[in-house]
Amino acid sequence: MVPIDEEAVLNAHYVWGKSTAARTLQTVLGVTVDGWYGPATRAAHLAENAARGFDTTGVPPVPTTTTAPPTTAPPAGENTTSTAPSVTVPVTFGGVGAELVAELLNQPCIADGDLSDCPPEVDVLISGLVG
Predict the structure, then answer these.
(1) Cα–Cα distance between 41 and 27 in angstroms, integer?
(2) N or C, which terminus of the chain has less Cβ within 10 Å?
């Protein structure tokens, strides 16, 4: 078996969600190997990089649910002051916000309230919450 270059694995750039690279990282971190880069993997990744004195540029940020407002021009003569982006409140699952459910279930694809990018087993978990 070829040894893993732990420094290269810890300093690589990762994306939130499922990937083969996440499996290798989880192996190096000694956490549950499920191939999902989520809150638990991120926390372990940050802690391990800090313990070894590595930077964290490869650690992905937690997904957000912000959206920008429509960019249509106002009719002539109306106020043209721009507004800040609005924040979309995630849907709830059994009275619990999507971001909290994502963290509790270690399924980052839930955080935006859109389950279309989640694996099939997540639908079963959510169905249990919402009945």
Answers:
(1) 10
(2) N
Give dist(CA 50, CA 44) in Å, integer: 10
Compute the CA torsion angle 111, 114, 119, 121 (nearest 10 deg): 80
Is 0.70 topped by the overall pTM? no
pLDDT digits (tens, 9 = 90+) for 23-81: 999 999 999 999 889 888 999 999 999 999 999 999 988 876 544 444 455 555 554 44
> Which helix (H) or strand (E) segment is 18 a member of?
strand 17-18
The dihedral region occupied by 91, where left means phi > 0, alpha psi between -120 and 50, and beta the remainder, is: beta
Per-residue tokens: 54: 């590595």
Which of 61, 106, 107, 113 lies closest to 87, judged by CA?
Answer: 113
CB 115 within 8 A of CB 101: no
How far is residue 71 from each of residues 7, 78, 80, measured CA to CA in Å?
A: 44, 15, 11
